[in-house]
Design a protein that fits this description.
Number of strands: 12
CATH architecture of the largest domain: 2-Layer Sandwich
Distance between the termini: 42 Å
CATH superfamily of the largest domain: Bira Bifunctional Protein, Domain 2
Strand content: 25-35%
Number of domains: 2
Oligomer: single chain
CATH topology of the largest domain: BirA Bifunctional Protein, domain 2
């Protein structure tokens, strides 16, 4: 796969989109730093030196609607194998170690008619970022690999290359395979969660993921609701 390296960009997603509109290639964009990194629902993504910021462009995937979940499971599996750490995933796109966020995913697709033109898989991973560099409001629930791997600064280019080689498998997984692999790392299933959107919040028990990628929440009444990732955030209560 073609890989483009940058020291600093506004956003690897923006660079990847600009290139994807001009070529039919599949490729990856890697940056050492982002000035305007972004996450889900338009939120900013803290992207200093020491983090790993990747956007990968694919032209075809077997299960588009579950791509974000598949990538999260692949990254969890990679970190588990490579660094011998206990990794979990939290719907819809968080990667956790020791119940703290170490990374996240942003998938953006271009579709014309019923045809996928391309999908951009954005990955942000905290690797060599010292805790004191994080904004104060993030320090209690964020972690970096350097905190749990006793080897000094880790080689970002080496990690990026290995990770991209793992992410390529997302193109071949069908929806059933993705749900099975997600379940292995899911930290919410069977737990009480709070569901939050702009104008509503309620609690329930997480009961897994539906085939459209929605989170299934069981209310105290026994009713089950499907929560769409574009509109909601969840917080684990117990």
């Amino acid at each position: 796969m073609i890989t483009l390296f940058f020291n600093q960009v506004d956003s690897t997603q923006n660079i990847a989109k600009s290139i994807a509109e001009k070529t039919s290639d599949e490729f990856a964009v890697i940056a050492r730093q982002q000035i305007s990194g972004r996450g889900r629902r338009g939120r900013s993504w803290f992207s200093p030196l020491g983090g790993l910021y990747i956007s990968i462009v694919f032209r075809k995937v077997k299960c588009l609607r579950l791509t974000s979940l598949a990538v999260a499971a692949l990254i969890a599996n990679f970190l588990e194998k490579e660094f011998k750490v206990n990794v979990k995933v939290k719907w819809p796109n968080d990667i956790l170690i020791n119940n703290k966020k170490i990374g996240g995913i942003l998938c953006e697709a271009s579709i014309k008619g019923n045809k996928l033109e391309y999908i951009i898989i954005g990955i942000g991973l905290n690797v060599n970022i010292p805790r004191e560099l994080f904004p104060i409001e993030f320090r209690s629930n964020t972690i970096s690999l350097i905190e749990i791997v006793n080897s000094g600064d880790l080689n970002l280019e080496e990690i990026a290359g290995k990770l991209i080689n793992e992410i390529i498998y997302v193109k071949d997984w069908n929806c059933n395979e993705i749900l099975i692999k997600w379940l292995k790392y899911d930290c919410t299933i069977g737990r009480k969660v709070e569901v939050i959107s702009d104008n509503i919040r309620f609690t329930g028990i997480a009961r897994g993921i539906d085939f459209d990628g929605s989170l299934i929440i069981e209310l105290s009444s026994g009713e089950r609701l499907k929560i769409n990732s574009s509109n909601y955030t969840i917080r684990i209560l117990s």
